[in-house]
Structure formats: structure tokens, C-alpha cells
Amino acid sequence: MENFSTALAPYIQDLDSNILTFISIVVSVIGALLSLLVAILGVWFAVAQYRLKRSIKIIGSVSFTDSALYNDLYPDQIVIQNLKDKSEAIFGIHIRLGNNIYITMEDLEDSPIVIGPFETLVRNYKPLSFYGCNNYKVNINPAIQERKGCVVVLTTNKGKYVTKQRKHYWSPILDSLNNATISRAGLSFVKSFNQRKSRS
User: Fold this and answer.
1) How far is CA 78 from CA 26, 36, 40, 187, in A?
2) Which chain regions cross the lipid bilayer (predicted)?
3) CA dihedral 87, 122, 150, 139 (to 10 degrees)
């Protein structure tokens, strides 16, 4: 029996050596894969940061309303939102209707406003008496009512920039179009409105 164990001893040592070598290779491969993953994440993060700081990405929206004192529809609010991690100077705010009708809301060439990284600006406007072009009064109410191609256009240090449309965010009124659970959200909204109205 002792002779048999002595004869197997070299084979067992060789087996242990092979297992250790295999484990060492596996650990080395896992370490290399982890290092590669960290490098890929680092490159992805650097590219993401670069994309946030290059070019311009601003979204905007405009709302129109009317006044009992004037005949023309007018833009009462413009919202612009900077989606980049850098500030942007704005030298003018305009509204484009269709292909070739522009309403200049603010000429800021002498005193531009700066929208910061990921900042949202809300510009409110009062009713206007009329629209004019080259000292002539013009009627653009039909174009406003169509809202075809209505976008906010900005004057930046890189020239003309046409903003993308702002998405519509969640609202309990939209939820009220669904089921009973949503209806409670709509009732809650009405209750809140009534409370504010009674306080005023």
C-alpha cells in the first residue's frame, strides 16, 4: 500500500501544479477584463462629458393667448431650456411661423442674456397693439392660429439657432383621461384650484 501511495505522489503533485496554474490564468484573465471594463467606462464618460460641452442643444416652447383690449393673438410666454453643460449667450429671441414669418420678441444685441448649464428660462410678455413690418401694419392671426412650423428661434454667438420642441411633462389632467384612479388625481387638481380661488 505504501508503495502504491509513493507511486501516485508525483502525479498528485503534477495535478496540484496544473490546477494552480489554471487558477492563476483565470485570475489574470478576470483582472484583464475588469481593467478593460474600467477603461471602456472611462472612455464613455469622457465622450459623454465632451458631448455635453460641444455645440448647442436648447429646447423651447411658446404659448399664444388673446386679450379683450386688442384684436391680435399674442405670445404671452416663451420657455427655453438648456440641455448642455455649458452656458450660452442669447442675443435675440424670435418666433418662426411657417417658413418665412418671424416675430421678434426681444432684441438683446446690446445686453444679451446668458442661460446657464441645464438652466430653464421663462420669458413672459404683455399684450401688443399690432404687428408691423416696414412701417406697415400686418395681420398674422391666421398664421398664428394654424401654428404650422411654429418654433422658437434664438440668435446666439454662433448665429441662428432653431430650438427643438419641448416635450410635454406629466400632468394630472392628462391622467384624468384614463381610469378611476386617474379621476381622483383630476378631482384633487380641481380641489386645489378651488382652494386657491377662494383665498384670493
Assistant:
1) 60, 47, 41, 29
2) 20-47
3) -130
